[in-house]
Amino acid sequence: MSVSASAPAFGALNGLVVLDLTRMLAGPFATMMLADQGAQVIKIEPPGGDGTRRNGPHPPGARRMEEGGFGAYFASINRNKSSLTLDLKKPQGKAVLRRLVRHADVLVENYRTGVMERLGLGYEQLAQDNPRLVYAALRGFGDPRSGLSPYADWPAYDPVAQAMGGIMGITGPQVNGPPTKIGPGVGDLIPAMFLAFGIAAACLRAQRTGQGQFVDVGMVDAVLAVCERSVFQYSVTGRAPRPEGNGHPLLCPFGLFPARDGYVSLGVPNDRFWVPLVERMGRPDLATDPRYASNEARVAHRDEVDALVAAWTELYTKAQLSAMLGGDIPYGPVFDAADIFADPHFRQRQMLVDVEQPGAERALTVADTPIHMSATPGGVRRRAPLTGEHTEELLRGFGFDVAEIDTLRAARAIS
């Protein structure tokens, strides 16, 4: 699939106006999710642009931050957005934002606690301008409005959220071994998904009642929410779960197993799948052996079961195992990015999309949304914006006349 910068608007959120004051990964990913579903997301950047524009990698020839351009990091999570540069440290810039707020549905920011209040742009101030406004904040340890964390003033990034939210503590290649950071920035991405959901829910209520509200997601809280298994396990047993290796504490065999050319994943939660697995292994006797005949028995003899399965899988390549197991047993080969680009599933499902990268010698491929809607399809429809690319166009759309725009430019409130 390939899209251009001028593709038409679509999506279930078409008509929703979102002012995006976020930076880094978590906030922009949340607003990207809204933009992918058709919302008009206006990325409000400081003079010179969002600092993440300089983050690589940079395709050959692509315009750099100094030229209003961006690297692949920025391109991936800021697609479908417009860019308006605004200096919120200047009185004129603050006045512009408050004027935009009057016509917006949502404002999203991920500054540290108190920053927007010191600017005179906190929720309570902006809600006076627009009672329908859904004001969403994403911070490391949440906003004091929802409960004052002892860490409220601590800065937080992905690894901090992974560590304190509990997901690192149950992740690692060895059972009860040292903790391991998960590769993708789930400490950012999980909170972003919760924030996008919260915004959509709050917007539905605002449409019904005319009343907006404050939406608060703490990064650490969101990570804890997806570690729900650890919470109920500790509540019942009083024992804190530790790294689980590549298996599952309650199911067996369930996890990674070696192949001749890499690794494969098997999920065998019950006898329905255990029986055909051992038949393909040439060991139908294992289906009735009391040590392995039930999931409970297999969990009790986990090391033996894993060793038996691994001794079989490592005899074959991933392709051979796919032919033997695919479609009958929960199974999948472990893919790297090259495998994903080569596999037909991802192109046929439109998960890999080529977008324009200004100045680059060729298009950039980014991951599309996994949300498919039959009546209001969403997804990537245009590239990320150049710095301030739409400033004048957007201001005119919000009712600013030429003289007002010239005055703002002269005052360096916009660029």
Q: Gist?
A:
The chain has 415 residues and is an alpha/beta fold. The chain has helices at 26-36, 72-77, 91-101, 115-118, 123-129, 158-164, 186-209, 219-226, 228-237, 271-280, 295-300, 302-313, 318-325, 337-342, 344-348, 391-397, 402-410; strands at residues 17-21, 40-45, 81-85, 106-109, 134-139, 213-218, 254-259, 262-267, 331-333, 352-355, 364-367.
Protein model, in words:
The protein has 415 residues and is α/β, with parallel strands linked by helices. The chain folds into two domains: 17-225 and 346-410, 3-Layer(aba) Sandwich (Rossmann fold), CATH 3.40.50; 254-335, 2-Layer Sandwich (formyl-coa transferase, domain 3), CATH 3.30.1540.10. 36% of the residues lie in helices and 13% in strands. The chain contains 17 helices and eleven strands. Helix 6 (158-164) packs across helix 8 and helix 7 (186-209) packs across helix 8. The radius of gyration is 25 Å and the shape is elongated.
